[in-house]
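Lab notebook, design round three. We kept the backbone fixed and only want residue identities now. Task for the bench partner: fill in a sequence for the structure below.
Input structure tokens:
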């Protein structure tokens, strides 16, 4: 895949992730919709936390969307998604549809960032061939026998 295709694919994935988070998670919390409070109550959260969680999610999303802070935003957003996963586990929610949903979102988010950020691809390269042990050994280091 050429660089332009990767960049635009990453932008599209990032945009879809951002739209989903805004529409399905952040907006209901910030607008004080009853569904947000009801859902949090079903998961064991006390009343009144939806606005705070919504603002934290919005802050992380903004950091994720700004190119200079995108990795920080992704790490912080993954922390929120991990907390959501822990909440679903504690509530004994279904595994693949509820508990792992945060993992699916995280993979989608990181995939978009990986496609649009060459620096991240350099840190986490995708290889079709495994690296040999000899090639993986840093230069100048000699193995003790």
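Proposed sequence:
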């Amino acid at each position: 895949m050429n660089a332009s295709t990767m960049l635009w694919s990453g932008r599209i994935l990032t945009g879809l992730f951002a739209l989903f988070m805004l529409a399905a998670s952040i907006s209901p919390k910030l607008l004080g919709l009853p569904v947000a409070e009801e859902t949090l109550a079903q998961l064991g959260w006390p009343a009144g936390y939806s606005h705070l969680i919504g603002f934290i999610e919005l802050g992380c999303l903004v950091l994720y969307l700004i190119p200079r802070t995108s990795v920080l935003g992704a790490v912080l957003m993954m922390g929120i998604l991990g907390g959501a996963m822990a909440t679903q586990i504690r509530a004994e929610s279904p595994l693949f549809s509820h508990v792992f949903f945060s993992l699916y979102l995280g993979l989608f988010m990181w995939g978009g960032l990986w496609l649009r950020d060459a620096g991240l691809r350099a840190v986490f390269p995708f290889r079709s061939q495994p690296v040999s042990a000899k090639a993986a050994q840093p230069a100048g280091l000699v193995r003790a026998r």
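Keep this in mind before ordering anything: The mean pLDDT is 91.
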